[in-house]
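Cardiolipin synthase N-terminal domain-containing protein, pasting as requested.
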Amino acid sequence: MQTTYFWIGLAVVLILIDLWILNSVWRSDNASGSKAGWTAVVVLLPFLGAAIWAIAGPRGVTKGPSSPEHSKG
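Structure tokens follow.
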């Protein structure tokens, strides 16, 4: 029973990491083809894709909040 919770927790963490990676990829200033390639790698190979992205993925996010209201504190 406890082993089941472990695997469920691990899957949830992996899904959250992959969503964060996809958000980072699509907010980068790389070309659309590059974004599509990274998306395919991360979606098709979730664990391995995350590891590859951590080593060779795009760095820096250029697009800020969608409106000035988001950045107000």
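Note for the archive: DSSP finds three helices and no strands in the chain.
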